């Protein structure tokens, strides 16, 4: 399996395909595009049937080996077996089986309509990012050990991504994590989750500034190419291809657990921000998984909903990016969206490059086909099953209350966006699976507002705020940051 950039020129000479291991530790392709396989591997009906009885880890192996053809099969099997265990994904709720890794719960059934929740947030940090990040930690350690190399992950977080990365990389040989977060801007729970890690390879840096300041520092350091090379700096952001592939697995799992034969179809509603999660759904569908609709659910930051309603992709300015009660979806642009656009425009790298150049220079593009637009491919979006909807703070509160009253469970704010939008798209005869992207305990403030009681915390998280914390506070001085990194890598 070979990978190409979404911006690669058609002439084969100028685009050099790479294999899975080549792109594992990197981010963007050299031309600024994102990596995708040259063709999506296909899954036959017979294969899908055979996969019904597999454990999650074995299913992950079957899906991954189609993409990571350069990793020896026995090694890949060991990596997935080590990652997808009931000990790692142990935060299942009452009534869920931890061994299923992503257990399904039927919320509503009747009148030919069926609404199902698929729990993706039972991992160490209680959010779906653990589904991919835990595998990435093991894949990184494995690849680095083979070459005797080191990797220093440097990133910025406003919450979920940073903690998922730290819990995936803690104690891993050859890897250190330097994670910036805005000082005193995360919730007490989120800070406690990250800062209570005492592992010597984890460095939490609270920056006196806001999240954007943290991101600017990461950019400034990454733009210093000699420093980056000397210090073996890498990232684990949401465009990482291995993260996307790991997420493909739970679409297969959700489908297989919700159906009894391959003639059935299901739809998925996915709380969406950077288009990473739902991009994996698109890939599963392209591989032949019988998915009817893929519904992107956004919050007030509705970049994606706008595109799927109108064909206009318009990134937002900072002032137009709202801080909401589903904060992990507060994005101004959807960094994985280019992967879908590449498919939508017929895998034309030059055209994709031109469109995203327009995003960089003019803030967006228009594929509606109207006079003066950049193209008319929006009319093909339906073929890919995409639909969308949005949700507001009030919708979240109402949905959290409804779900608690009707089904007796407390859902988090992002999942509430998903359920709100799923209800608008559910059809008779097609099971609608909503992906649960976090547990409510992570966003307790809003749960208190909605229900008047605290969200339940999984065992082991009861007194997390009281644990000793390890972090340093630093200013936004980039040179001091570089000196701090260099003094701790010893490189
Ligand atoms: C990251 C995140 C999302 C958004 O996922 P994308 O892959 O960026 O679309 C939704 N919900 C939660 C809880 C998250 O952490």
UniProtKB/TrEMBL annotation:
UniProt entry tagged with the keyword Thylakoid: no
Spans traversing the lipid bilayer: none
UniProt entry keywords in alphabetical sequence: Lyase, Pyridoxal phosphate
Gene Ontology molecular function, alphabetical: threonine synthase activity
Cofactor(s) listed: pyridoxal 5'-phosphate
Cross-referenced Pfam families: PALP, THR4_C, Thr_synth_N
Statement: the UniProt record of this protein carries the keyword Nuclease: no
Segments forming domain Tryptophan synthase beta chain-like PALP: 100-345
Entry EC no(s): 4.2.3.1
Modified residues (N6-(pyridoxal phosphate)lysine): 129
Superkingdom assignment: Bacteria
BP GO annotations: threonine biosynthetic process
Span of domain Threonine synthase N-terminal: 2-84
Family of this protein: Belongs to the threonine synthase family.
Name of the protein in question: Threonine synthase
Source organism of this protein record: Rugamonas rubra
